[in-house]
Amino acid sequence: MTTSAQADPAQGAPGSGPGPLRGIRVIDASTILAGPLCAQLLGDFGADVIKIEHPVAGDGMRGHGESKNGIPLWWKEISRNKRTIGLSLSDPDGAALFRRLVEDADVVVENFRPGTLERWGLGPDVLHGINPGLVLVRITGFGQTGPYASRAGFGTLAEAMSGFAHLTGEPDGPPTLPAFGLADTICGIAASSATTMALYHRERDPEHRGQVIDMNLIEPIMAAVGPSPTVYDQLGVIGHRHGNRSTNNSPRNTYRTCDGHWVAVSTSAQRIAERVLELVGHPEVVEEDWFATGGGRAAHADLLDGLVGGWIGERTREKVIAEFTAAGAAVAPVYDARDLVEDPHIRETGMLTTVEDEDFGPLLMHNVMWRMSRTPGAIRFTGRARGADTEHVLTEELGVSPGELAALRERKAVS
Fold first, then answer.
1. In sequence order, what are the beta bridge partners of 108?
2. Mean pLDDT across the chain, nearest whole number?
């Protein structure tokens, strides 16, 4: 599946994007990573997204991840479908231009520390005074209120405080953090969902009022970790690390094949567990009373891992997957990036897609995240150079004169 992306600077103007959010304007004033992902998802499904970045320093996302020829690769994806302008919100003239942008906006996404927008004269009361229908998405580490609200907040801290790190890793090893932005990513997806709910409510509200969404990094990943607070509340039980094993079922682990690869096996369903043990030549184990429940099997994980791991260790990855698939058992290879790119199912279903980029030509990236039969999203263009759309947005859409723009650039209020 290939999506063509053009370099036309006017592309992405209001109403130009296909998808259910066509005609919605989003101002992305956020950085690293949850806010930009939220805005990217909205843009993928048709919203006109205007990306605000500092006119001198640029956006911090440009410095994250690998680069090619000095051009950041992650930026190409996280800022796709976004027109970018350099605008200093801490500068009075920059803040004034921002307020003018808000007049016609539907959504603002920001992730400054609580009180920062208010200090610049851009707090919710001001923005809703300009545009009562605005949905203001405020993403912070700890939320807008509470004893930790003023602390610096990053995804790593959320991964630690949510219980994720405590439950991740080997039993005798340290708490383990992910090697990627897990908390930010989950939060960004959650924020896009909250935004569309707020837009839906606005359409049903007789006064067409927007609202403030107070989104923190901790709660979405807490939901992913599971009901451990409830378990503690009712049973006084605190979970601990199990490596790749599960407390709910077994066999569930990663196993090494004889050709040096790894596969993952899951047996969440009872019949799947039975098929796995029958496949590896131990149907007698299925007859054990303890095998009838996931908890019973989890209590015998050493035995089951030995039986399954021994069988897998004598076969190649290709053979293991073929035999598991034929038996109707659940298995998947443990992939690196090259495996993912080369997998026929990933490519043929369009989970990855190639778009045309003005710097690199054909560029492979994640496709829009879900498929919608009537209002599909699209990648209209990839992330652009800093300030690529400043002149077009400010002069054509806000009516700033060339002389005014030159003066603002001289003062570094815009770029």
1. 27, 136
2. 95
Catalytic, out of 28, 184, 357, 389:
184
Q: Model confidence over 291-339: pLDDT tens digits?
A: 999 999 999 999 999 999 999 999 999 999 999 999 999 999 999 999 9
Q: Is 75 exposed, middle or buried (0-12, 13-18, 19+ CB in 10 A)?
A: buried
DSSP string computed for 55-80? TTT--GGGGSS-EETTEEHHHHHHTT
Bridge partners (DSSP) listed for residue 29: 110
pTM above 0.90, yes or no: yes
DSSP annotation of 393 reads: I
Establish whether 184 is a catalytic residue. yes
Tokens standing for 342?
């080369």
pLDDT of 13 above 90: no
Spacing of C-alpha 130 from chain mean position: 31
User: Strand 107-110 relative to strand 262-265: parallel, antiparallel, unpaired?
Assistant: unpaired
Instruction: State how far the Cα of 69 lies from the Cα of 117, in Å rounded to an integer.
Output: 35
Q: Which domains does the chain have, with CATH numbers?
A: 2-224+350-410 (3.40.50.10540), 253-338 (3.30.1540.10)
